[in-house]
Automatic annotation (TrEMBL):
The keyword Transmembrane helix applies. This is DUF202 domain-containing protein. It comes from the Bacteria. Keywords: Membrane, Transmembrane, Transmembrane helix. The lineage of its organism: Bacteria, Bacillati, Actinomycetota, Actinomycetes, Micrococcales.
Length: 110
């Protein structure tokens, strides 16, 4: 199977990848909403809700990136949101990893 080539296809694939990431974060957050509160109490709810908000941010960023990419295909130059989206995603992932590490340490100490 060959991947169709043409203007805009890379932007389409990138947008779909960001949407898959947003969906994965949402599913993980919903699973966390089911599993974490009995173990962590209010912190479990907070982490899960923050994850759902993050997935919404990722989905909106994917939409914005695709729209900006389509606009840039028609015009030369212009600023994109790629760098800020990637940086925000990396920082948020690191924050969630830190919370997961703290939660793990708390669970082991019980």
């Amino acid at each position: 199977m060959t991947v169709p080539q043409g203007p805009g296809m890379q932007a389409e694939r990138t947008s779909l990848a960001w949407r898959r990431t947003a969906l994965s974060v949402a599913v993980g957050s919903l699973a966390g909403l089911r599993v974490l509160p009995p173990q962590l109490g209010a912190l479990g709810y907070a982490v899960s809700i923050l994850g759902l908000l993050w997935s919404l941010d990722l989905a909106l960023s994917a939409r914005r990136r695709y729209r900006d990419g389509q606009r840039l295909l028609g015009a030369a130059g212009g600023a994109t949101t790629a760098g800020t989206t990637v940086a925000r995603t990396a920082l948020t992932s690191g924050g969630f990893a830190l919370v997961a590490l703290v939660a793990l340490v708390l669970l082991v100490r019980r």
